[in-house]
Fold:
Amino acid sequence: MALGVFSLPAFALDPGGLFVEPGVTFEQTSKGKINWPSPLNDSSSQLKGLGLSARLGFHLNQALFLGVDGRYSKPKFKSSVFDSSVSSTAYNWGPVVGMQMPNIGLRLWADYIVDGQVDPESYTAGGSSLDGKFQKGKGYRVGAGFHVLMLSVNLEYQKIKYDEAELQEIGPFAPGTDYSSVSLDDESWILGVSFPLAL
Structure:
């Protein structure tokens, strides 16, 4: 969610200016997979729910910008291991670079996600419990938005791989152990509304 140039003269941005952009997002996994250690089988996964976004950046000129993009969300997490949904807490952040077309309000951007985490609440089914935290998330996010006055409507595609899991409780495994062999791959679509503000 990048900052665009306002169409009304009263909101025009000076080239080289700072900006901040808070927003609200809705995330839906299109494809998710968890690579569990033996004897568990790999499973599908899904994240779905609302979140918050925030950007702080700098305009190189009216067409280009650089910044840092952070996300925080409380999505529902579902895994086919137990086929149930639980609440989770997720975050990710990284640098963003983008371009904008001041005359028509169209913007394009790309993020490199340098770190992220998904922490589902524990859940139990069939006498077995699962409580794991997926860490060291890295990936990318690309998006497009349309900016009218002080409102921007955005659509993004995000792909993150969490390369490590801390398994607090899962079947036969020791609690509190980090497993570098356990990974979560998540591909999501994100619909968002943001509010660009020049500083």
Notes: The first strand starts at residue 18 and ends at 35. The domain at 9-198 is CATH 2.40.160.20 (Porin).
